[in-house]
Design brief:
161 residues; 36% helix; four-stranded parallel sheet; alpha/beta; 19% strand
Length: 161
Amino acid sequence: MTEHPFPPLYNKDSKVLILGSFPSVKSREQMFFYGHPQNRFWKVIAAVFECDVPETIEEKKKLLFENGVALWDVIASCEIEGSADSSIKNVKVNDLSKILNEADIKAIFINGKTAEKYFKKYTKSKIKRDALCLPSTSPANAAWSVERLCEKWKVIKEIQR
């Protein structure tokens, strides 16, 4: 079993929660979200909020906090081969209640179909809230260009108005 090695990122001012599936090998090494250089998450988020792409973990945290965005993953632990979502088995999910109780989350978004699958299977009925699935920023989702991703992901900014 591989355990999720780092905590959720949020504060009391978070309005939007973005859920991934489970951190990649690179993210687990860096102990932070979307650490693989080919993942387009940070490019997309920077474009949505019209700012420079953050380089350091501190810059990434600042971008998210300034824009009321919280990050976490659906899966707390699982069996996984490398970073392949398709290999995920024996899932235990994260408890979202702490984030939902401490922050005023207006909307939940899901980064990709794997996270959506486990959210619908294990989490949705527990928290009694819907989530909107956005196309994955993973490099495995090569059919989606950064431009197309940005168009879909803009909904995050619209929610906060």
